[in-house]
UniProtKB/TrEMBL annotation:
<dbReference type="GO" id="GO:0008556">
    <property type="term" value="F:P-type potassium transmembrane transporter activity"/>
</dbReference>
<dbReference type="Pfam" id="PF02669">
    <property type="entry name" value="KdpC"/>
</dbReference>
<keyword id="KW-0547">Nucleotide-binding</keyword>
<dbReference type="GO" id="GO:0005886">
    <property type="term" value="C:plasma membrane"/>
</dbReference>
<keyword id="KW-0633">Potassium transport</keyword>
<keyword id="KW-1133">Transmembrane helix</keyword>
<keyword id="KW-0630">Potassium</keyword>
<dbReference type="GO" id="GO:0005524">
    <property type="term" value="F:ATP binding"/>
</dbReference>
<protein>
    <recommendedName>
        <fullName>Potassium-transporting ATPase KdpC subunit</fullName>
    </recommendedName>
</protein>
<keyword id="KW-1003">Cell membrane</keyword>
<keyword id="KW-0812">Transmembrane</keyword>
<comment type="subunit">
    <text>The system is composed of three essential subunits: KdpA, KdpB and KdpC.</text>
</comment>
<dbReference type="InterPro" id="IPR003820">
    <property type="entry name" value="KdpC"/>
</dbReference>
<keyword id="KW-0067">ATP-binding</keyword>
<keyword id="KW-0472">Membrane</keyword>
<comment type="function">
    <text>Part of the high-affinity ATP-driven potassium transport (or Kdp) system, which catalyzes the hydrolysis of ATP coupled with the electrogenic transport of potassium into the cytoplasm. This subunit acts as a catalytic chaperone that increases the ATP-binding affinity of the ATP-hydrolyzing subunit KdpB by the formation of a transient KdpB/KdpC/ATP ternary complex.</text>
</comment>
<keyword id="KW-0813">Transport</keyword>
Length: 186
């Protein structure tokens, strides 16, 4: 029995050191060397160097002066991220979407884009389709006292085309660009 126990315990100890220590340390070191910004959370900083968020996570922008992110079922909390898990047949989903649509509806622009009414799978998607951002331009222009054409140009400048999928706008990056634009015009 002792002849079987010693090699088994040695193998467990060796594998624990390799897979629980050496390998994670190696992956961390390669990440810090090759992709330091991404390995540290893709943090977004303002002009003063203060962390304002992550390029990978949505934030709650509720003031009418800002472009708003899509809704979050977890109130933008990373620990509780996830979808609402409400089926399309669930009346609670319809009630929530209708309430948000009524709140955001602008008769001059027509129906509210679906991306502004529904949550993403994680509840933390930082990007919106350009149409959902453009829908918000009149409100932000009115609140900020800026011409709509200026904001539409800003949205176009912040629109990016990922390798896979449709064009998107990162709402945090857009709001930071809006903040820079507003501070320059003062």
């Amino acid at each position: 029995m002792n002849s079987l126990l010693r090699p088994a315990l040695s193998l467990i100890l060796l594998m624990t050191l390799l897979t629980g220590g050496a390998y994670p340390l190696l992956v961390w070191a390669v990440g810090q060397w090759a992709f330091p910004a991404q390995a540290n959370g893709s943090l977004v900083r303002d002009a003063q160097g203060e962390v304002r968020g992550s390029a990978l996570l949505a934030q709650a922008f509720t003031d009418e002066r800002w472009f708003h992110s899509r809704p979050s079922a977890a109130d933008y909390a990373t620990l509780a991220s996830g979808a609402s898990n409400l089926a399309p047949s669930n009346p609670a989903l319809g009630t929530r979407v209708l309430a948000q649509a009524d709140e955001q509806f602008d008769a001059q622009q027509g129906p509210v884009p679906l991306a502004l009414l529904t949550t993403s799978a994680s509840g933390l998607d930082p990007d919106l389709p350009p149409a959902a951002v453009s829908y918000q331009v009149p409100r932000v222009a009115r609140e900020r006292g800026l011409p709509e054409s200026t904001l539409r140009a800003l949205v176009q400048a912040q629109t990016r085309s990922p390798a896979i999928g449709p064009e998107v706008v990162n709402v945090l990056a857009l709001n930071q660009a809006l903040d820079r634009l507003t501070s320059q015009s003062r």
